[in-house]
Write a structure and sequence with these properties.
This protein has three helices and three strands, in the order αααβββ. It has 95 residues and is of the alpha+beta class. The chain has a three-stranded antiparallel sheet with strand order 1-2-3, with no helix packed on it. β1 and β2 form a beta hairpin. α1 packs antiparallel against α2. Keywords: Membrane, Transmembrane, Transmembrane helix.
Length: 95
């Protein structure tokens, strides 16, 4: 059920962006309303689904700290969230 609500919110955001691009002059207020409603529905679904995580982490605002490098690929950094201990790996940019 929550996945359906999240999908509905994403569809509202997509419809708002498409109508904003295609009909900017006549549909701008309605498009902005669709985008805001879709963001609110998606945020509400995320808050309801992930009860065990802190509120910023439920909404996707993690605070990552660099913890080390991957053993297999030395160019891959490992980051860990301060609040929820989610682990993320990212490749260093080459220059």
């Amino acid at each position: 059920m929550l996945q359906l609500i999240k999908t509905t919110g994403l569809l509202l955001i997509t419809a708002g962006v498409i109508s904003l691009i295609l009909y900017f002059d006549s549909m701008a207020p309605i498009s902005i309303g669709l985008i805001a409603a879709g963001a609110a529905v998606t945020a509400a679904a995320a808050l309801a689904a992930k009860r065990d995580l802190p509120v910023p982490c439920r909404l996707g605002f993690h605070r990552y700290d660099h913890t080390g490098y991957d053993e297999e690929m030395r160019s891959m950094r490992i980051y860990k969230c301060r609040r929820c201990t989610k682990v993320k790996k990212a490749v260093l940019g080459g220059g």
